[in-house]
């Protein structure tokens, strides 16, 4: 081999793309009865190239949600072809993302219960000497569900009355464990009632005085020139309770 021939020799050095890595973010939002999991905001694919991790924002066209819905729960999403292409473009030619691995990636979108409130009404009835405050009729508790309100009737098993009694007065009541369970069932999985708020919920039952009647009798006496009418004897009044 002479020098001129050696100088003509050529070889190829190929620099192949380095492997990049990707993970999908999770996110959550509060139930509103309208927004689907696929409409979640703030999702990203975090692409690691070398020592650097870059978040790539995902739009609804970049992912698909299994069993998409608006109700409270956990929804899993995967990348669409458009999402995979976006990530491959993001890493450039020096890094490689395997399509089959990208297709296996999953992330979670959680729809969490909306916090709601409940209220209880006051009640009253007339004294009868027998009916206790805890036996009051017409008591209700209301739960606010978005723009709607649902009420349930409360009976004696649903309330606990402090110093329960039959006499005229005001009695404070709170909800029993049974009533709290009923309200939570009415709220369902999409709404959350705070236990502390329910425990603090109170109402007033008022026992009002009964209407009584009274009568007075008539009387007469013989004129004697001295005794005034106001000094008549035998007068009495009768009160009916």
TrEMBL record:
Ranges for domain MBG: 21-113, 115-209
Origin superkingdom: Bacteria
Leader sequence residues: none
Pfam family, one: MBG
Protein's name in the database: Adhesion exoprotein
């Amino acid at each position: 081999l002479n020098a001129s021939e050696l100088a003509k020799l050529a070889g190829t050095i190929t620099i192949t793309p380095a492997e990049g890595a990707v993970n999908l973010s999770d996110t959550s939002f509060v139930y509103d009865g309208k927004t689907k999991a696929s409409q979640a905001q703030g999702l990203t694919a975090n692409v690691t190239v070398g020592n650097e991790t870059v978040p790539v924002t995902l739009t609804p066209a970049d992912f698909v949600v299994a069993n998409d819905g608006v109700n409270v729960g956990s929804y899993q999403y995967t990348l669409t072809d458009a999402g995979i292409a976006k990530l491959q473009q993001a890493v450039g030619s020096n890094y490689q993302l395997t399509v089959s691995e990208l297709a296996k990636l999953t992330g979670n979108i959680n729809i969490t219960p909306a916090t709601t409130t409940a209220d209880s009404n006051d009640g009253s009835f007339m004294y009868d000497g027998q009916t206790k405050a805890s036996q009051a009729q017409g008591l209700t508790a209301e739960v606010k569900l978005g723009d709607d309100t649902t009420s349930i009737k409360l009976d004696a098993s649903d309330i606990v009355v402090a110093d329960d009694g039959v006499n005229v007065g005001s009695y404070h009541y709170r909800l029993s464990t049974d009533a709290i369970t009923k309200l939570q069932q009415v709220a369902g999985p999409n709404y959350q009632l705070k236990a502390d708020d329910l425990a603090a919920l109170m109402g007033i039952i008022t026992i009002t005085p009964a209407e009584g009647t009274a009568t007075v009798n008539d009387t007469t006496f013989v004129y004697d020139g001295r005794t005034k009418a106001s000094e008549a004897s035998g007068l009495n009044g009768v009160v009916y309770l």
